[in-house]
Amino acid sequence: MTRPSSNRTISDRIGSHPIRSHRIRTAATAAALAAALLTAAVPADATPHRTPAAAPKAAQPLAVDLAAPEGPVLHGANGSLYGLSDDGVPTDAALAPLKLTTVTQKPEGGAQHPNGDAVTVSKSFFRNGGGDVLVMMQDIYAKWPYEDLGIDDYLTKVDKVVRDIADAPNGEHFVYVPFNEPDQIWYNLGVADQATYEKNRDRFFRDWKTVHDRIRALDPDARIAGPNESSYHSRLMGDFLTWAKQQKVLPDVTTWHELGPDSLRDFQGHYDDYRALEKRAGIAPRPVNIDEYANRRDLSVPGQLVQWVSMFERNKVYADQAYWDAAGNLSGSVAQSNIPNGAWWFFRWYATMTGRTVKVTPPTPDAVDTLQGLASYDTAKRQAQVLVGGAAGDAEVTVGHVDPKVFGRQVTAAVSEAAWSGYEGAHAAPRTLARKKLTVRPDGSVTVPLTGMDRMSAYRIVLTPAGSGTPQPAQAPWHAAYEAEDAAITAGKVYTQGTVANANGYAASGTKDVGSLNQDTSEVAFTVDVPRTGDYDLSVLYGNQSGGPATQRLTVDGGAARTVTYPSTENWTYRGLKTDTVRLSAGRHEIALAHDTAEVTLDRVDLTAATQPSAAYEATLADTTGSPSYDYASASGTGTGALVLGPRDAAVFDVYAPREGYYTVTPRATGGQLKLTAHGATTATTTSSQRFYLTAGNNRVTAAPAGAAPVRLRSLDVTGAGDDTAGVRGYEAESGALSGTAKPESGAHASGGSYAGWLGNGASNTATLTVQAPAAGRYLMAVRYANNERRDNGHAYNTDIVSRGADITVGKGKPRRVMFKNTWGWDDYWTLAVPVDLAKGANTVTFANPGAYAPNLDRIDLAPVIG
Fold first, then answer.
1. What angle do CA 126, 131, 134 make, to 5 degrees?
2. Residue whose C-alpha is closest to residue 828's, from 760, 767, 748, 761
3. pLDDT, position 669
């Protein structure tokens, strides 16, 4: 397909004009949802009569029918094209919770991109429970569109690809995709003229059979996918199925792409047409994989993704998000290598859905940018989950056929939100916005109102039986959002992004941002109102296209300026999220962000009342091993019930940490003793708080009984802001023993002003640090590094960043290869945590890479996992 670049031209960036506006979009979603849920079960005639100043817009109805099953939850729509770039990018902790069913990657050694080799990345994919790897075989070629050197040339490449796959571990879980977008590339099968079409079609059919038979000859058990059109063509699909059946060369998996915003409207028709063509040809239903879907404006946006995922899951097809930008971030769902953004949490929710999906009737089926949803019903767990999103305003979600044998006469309804945090913006564990008991109506239904929804957010509703007692109320802090384009702008320009008309533009809050803030007078001033005096978290959605850290001056009410530093992002529209704290008195204020160094694009700022960092992870929503039971006898306290763990059971929690440091982890449990495990370290038996050193982003923490007695676990509570003082020892990399070409280099943004550079690219070019361990055991080593190696493969729309590897050796142990993702700039430093086992006393840690350069190393911090 033709994939336009959305990069701003230089002419677009010249000049600016002042814009004055004080229109504010207030995000009172949490309070509104909580208030609405409190009255969800109140009959209409109990509501006081009032005359509104203006007629409110009617709430959008979305219906869920628990008595209309669609089949087991497939989790098929969570895949990604080039979602993995290296073994370990993204991290295991980012991969495992999502339960990926498919990914699509290039052949081993393929020249299309510098990384993403199928066999290489399959190691982390399979060890984290991945399903199938689709291999885009023509990505063996370097050019886009692929150079057409004739079928004989391609067959030599097919031979290599098949041998690599057939010899790989887990070879049965690879699927060959012989042709990519043949309707456009090599064969021009979308041509209108019928005679030309038939000529091109017959050439494609001959080549399909030739390649299909070649694959089968080399790998008799191979699974093959196709025809893999860039968009659905009924004419070609009908001809292909009839012919392929006759020739006995049908694909095992049927694939095509859905890459336009109209796919949200048209996919159901495409799918129904395909199944009709199958039936007409006498072909048994085959698995379908939409191995590229969605536009740039959809990726990373929970409210957009729920629309795509709902239609794929409803039809039980597999689907992989498109590769528009950089490999290794699950198509924009993971920031850096291990940090969840809003999309990651949406897919995490999707992964927790169990049992069967049930029918969801949205206000407007098969439409672009409308409220959509998917729902699951698990009678064994006695849970129903509903994921909705895609529209702003109010909605009423009515769940019907709530079985009293499963739920009783009352249910507990809990509502939470996964917001858009940008492509590179961290998103903490979604807060519960509202939790309340509801009485099931005589017709077997309950209604959960959603008030003040954000179009870019996804919302989860969980229904469970309501036990005795009162659930702990949700405690979401005050929050408001302010669009940059609505602020007072001096020497800047408003740009429009990510609309339906420009679907391959990047997403922006409100579809607009403010750029060209490159003059000394450039400033964006936000008028804000806060309810009370105190500290507020100021989160800025931004883009930094400068190639290194950029700064702005932050002032409140014209007071003393402070510096806000923005790390690099892929480009000016690839959103990051920067959070600082400001002290505000109750009432109105002006918060201004002004040009300082380089150029930053502003999208939106959010103010959130600062609270003590804490999160409660409900045990009934955790991943489990074994066969625990679910007990909803008591609704009191945190969560909606308890998980009853036997001696062979365990619960696995995904614990978010905003930074490296120590956090207090407390299991809310009764009964027998528990043991907790994180990063390979396990506590002694405990039912009390434990101090764990966690890495920034996601941490998988396992809770399991320490003996034979069962444990009733309600939640895992985590508090703290990441203490990096007591128990943490830091070491500057340039202070270690540097050999060969490795040497200290100055760096303005490096810790201590310098780093160790020129590591690797030769066996003798190493850095060795001597570290101290107060006791033997498992430690977490947080490695701060920079890497901006790139290879331009000539793509207008892909950024071919390269991860750098380092072989890390502890003492006399075996080297361990660790991959360090590109940080977007040589002066941008990220942290990657590596678990290591240390002996008591002095230990050496060596970084090397004989075959290629290692990343620049700034410092390492070491701490025992269990503090």
1. 100
2. 748
3. 94
